[in-house]
Amino acid sequence: MKKILVLFLLLIINIHSLAEADDIRDFQIEGMSIGDSALDFFSKDEIKKALNKKLTYPGSKKFFQIDPFKKHETYENVSFSIKKGDKKYVIYQIKGMLAYANKLDECLKKKEIILKDISSILVNAEEDKYEDEFGGKIGKSIAYITDLNLSDGSIRVWCVAWDRKHEISEHWTDTLNVDVSSKKYLNWLNNEAYN
User: Across all residues in the chain, what is the average pLDDT?
Assistant: First the structure.
């Protein structure tokens, strides 16, 4: 009976450990994770300078996105979102971006490689694939999106091919994006940011 009880306890501990492996904080972009302080990666001056060009949303100013424009190892551009007034600059969302100007096929291949790598780490993520044409508001622009949803957030990997007219007039470029967002940030984004 003792052997069965010990085996049962070990099984429960192992299942609990596996479940904890799918924590959104386990995923990093350029060494940064959800819940980290931006001060661990950037000086207060770099953050304050980036705040001058912060991205805000029309409905709520609770969170905002900044890009400190620092050279990174993997991504050409990294931005993150922090809460307004937070002096610790806790990261709630991180995005890495690579340019793929007029190279959609290459972007989609790289996207699949990234998804395979992520899926091997986050085995309990629910996958959702779809395309977004931005409601036709940006010409023939299209994004090929895959969301990996976890109980405490989501990882989104997508390629966007901008309509050439908008690409020229807005100075946009086609990109591969990897976005890690906490559940708290996603709730705000979906329910407050655009209201």
Answer: 85
